[in-house]
Design a protein that fits this description.
The protein is an alpha/beta fold. The N terminus is likely disordered.
């Protein structure tokens, strides 16, 4: 009996020892909850609100975590906002908070990063020098358009042999019927993914109209939208991360924000925190 056990155990142990260790998960392989994030700017009670939101990650349009956010479970993801942000100090700070680095913020808009495609491509090697995985500049619109800003950047990056590991997008829906809005969003994401074939980070998303100044629907509408959207994005495994716009809400009135000053949840904030 002992001999039989030895005959069975020894080959088994040898096989186990010969089996290579499982590879470490790639940085973009995150748990479902960690896919969900939020954009953060200063507000009273920001740290408490971020904790209550149950967000897995956040960004603040900066290369280093803002001082007004304390210790939370949410991971900080750095960003190089525009041409003026490409400094040794900012890149060094971003390097400390990897493994991902978000690229330029809405370079296609004059009131945002306001960069030409050539300028962005010329600066991109500086971002590569961090050794972090790089998410493309986030365009405000037209990410799937042939000849658009993002298309020019991605084509130029390929021609110059520059590294772009994922594509960032922003999307604000003007249709305040939640189910239709989700369909419009996913059509856009599908088209962008079909064009570039890379993971997508949706780093700003909400229902908002800009035809007469920023306007948002009721909290009830936003809440239904975020629930439906979360389910639709979960069906697309190539949507690596998404971030609601944003954590803070105005003290009174309609807002797309999740929490009012003092970490008081809005209707959409309650829906966001309850997401699986």
């Amino acid at each position: 009996m002992k001999r039989l056990v030895a005959l069975l155990v020894v080959p088994l142990v040898a096989a186990l020892l010969a089996t290579p260790a499982a590879a470490a998960p790639a940085p973009d392989r995150v748990q479902a909850r960690d896919v969900r994030g939020v954009g953060v700017w200063e507000m009273r009670g920001a740290t408490k609100a971020l904790r209550k939101s149950r967000a897995g990650w956040y960004h603040a349009w900066t290369a280093e975590p803002p001082a007004y956010v304390g210790r939370t479970r949410a991971a900080f993801v750095p960003m190089i906002w525009g041409a003026g942000s490409v400094t040794d100090e900012a890149l060094a700070s971003a390097r400390q908070h990897g493994p991902w680095l978000l690229g330029f913020n809405e370079p296609d808009l004059g009131e945002q990063a306001n960069m030409s495609v050539e300028q962005a491509l010329d600066l991109w090697p500086r971002l590569e020098s961090t050794g972090l995985q790089l998410v493309s500049p986030a365009v405000a619109y037209g990410g799937a358009d042939a000849g658009g800003w993002l298309d020019g950047f991605m084509s130029g990056a390929e021609q110059r042999d520059l590294r772009v590991d994922a594509v960032a997008l922003h999307w604000y829906g003007g249709d305040w019927r939640p189910r239709r809005a989700v369909g419009q969003l996913t059509d856009y994401l599908d088209a962008v993914h079909d064009r570039y074939g890379k993971p997508i980070w949706l780093t700003e998303v909400a229902l908002m109209r800009f035809d007469d100044g920023p306007r948002v629907p009721s909290g009830k509408v936003q809440a239904r939208f975020v629930r439906l959207m979360s389910r639709a994005l979960a069906e697309r495994e190539w949507v690596s991360r998404w971030a609601w716009f944003g954590l803070p809400a105005s003290a009174k009135g309609a807002s797309s924000g999740l929490y009012r000053p003092g970490a008081r949840p809005t209707t959409v904030g309650k829906a966001y925190a309850a997401l699986p």
